[in-house]
Amino acid sequence: MSRKMSCFRAHVLVLAVLAAPLAAPCAAQSGAPAGTPAQGGRDSYGAATYTVPPGWSRISNPSNPRAATYQSPVYNGGEVCRIAVFPPMPSSGNIVDDARKTFAGMMGVDPLANSGPPFPYTTMIRGLSPEGWSYVIIKHSINGRFGEYGRLYGTTTLGVQLGNQAVIIVGTGKDPQVSQCFGELVRDAWPAFFASLHFNTKPSPQQEQAFGSSIVGTWTVVASSMASGQYTFTAQGRYLSTAAFMQRTPAGTGLVLETTSSYFGDGSFSLQDNRLVLTPDQGRGNPTSSVIRVEQESKDLGVQLGAKWTDRLCLMEGTGEVCYNRSR
Fold first, then answer.
1. How many CA atoms lie within 13 A of 213 on its CB side?
2. What is the CA radius of gyration of the chain?
């Protein structure tokens, strides 16, 4: 595929998270969005409403004159991230192509054709939101070769299908291995931002049923060799949860005693908008509520014949998120 991709015309919304002032997918146009600059908190533009990450502020960005642009604080090492909201444009009917072409038009590289050494690997994610909109996410790092984490920018392109419109969210910070905005080790503002994203949509009964059915099964997380957890959800609205934590203590010369503590809970669950509510059986504790996301992830591009998709269920309480893989 050519590195020069045709850009979309009117009626697509693009939310772009930029670590550097990258060009918009189309030529600059007049008509910068009006509105009071936001310092964190709730904001909206176009078809979307969202929560600006804490400490971020709205700025003027000549590279994207039509965008509502939000900038992060300057983190250690000089990292700065940006979120820019563009006006709507029409969907091609294929949300993967919409996200891929927007990414290539802004970043100058096709994220699916340049995955794997000497380039960084590309990850694809697809899912259905509780609000009824389907989405795809393409994650790819640019500006360097595989392993050059100090110079790479990590980019995330989210494509949302809204009827005959597409919503594209492009995220860029430093590579996730070192980023302090959208990183895997320090902090990641993406889950909370994505969870806050809403559109004026209502799921159909079929979509509600599909989303409810998608969480039925057993989901397991292994945070490290020292901890693991599991949920099982049934079609009858019941859940079981377990967690195990391992402690290692010296037990003499050359010996280590491993002790595992297990926890078990059960009760009923319900879905309320984009939240999963767990209500333990009587005497087992108080109800808990988490923002839920159910999706599939592929680290072999997700578009090749025979590509492997892994089912994921992600739960967020506050700003912390834990993702589980389907085990059955």
1. 6
2. 21
Q: What letter would DSSP give residue 90?
A: B
Beta bridge partners of 39: 57
Domain co-membership, 115 together with 140: yes
- Specify the CATH number for the domain of residue 142: 3.40.1000
**Spatial CB neighbours of 279, under 8 Å, sequence gap ≥ 6:** 267, 268, 269, 270, 287
Q: What is the pLDDT of residues 205-245, one digit of tens each?
A: 898 889 999 999 999 986 654 446 888 999 999 998 886 54
* Residue 241, token pair as written in the block: 């949860």
4 occurs within a structural domain: no
264, two tokens: 């078990």
**β-pairing, 238-250 with 13-17?**
unpaired
Q: 236: exposed, middle or buried (C-beta count within 10 Å: 0-12, 13-18, 19+)?
A: exposed
DSSP 214-271: HT-EEEEEEEETTEEEEEEE-TTSEEEEEEEEEEEEE-STT-EEEEEEEEEEEEEEEE
What pTM, to 2 d.p., does this model score?
0.78
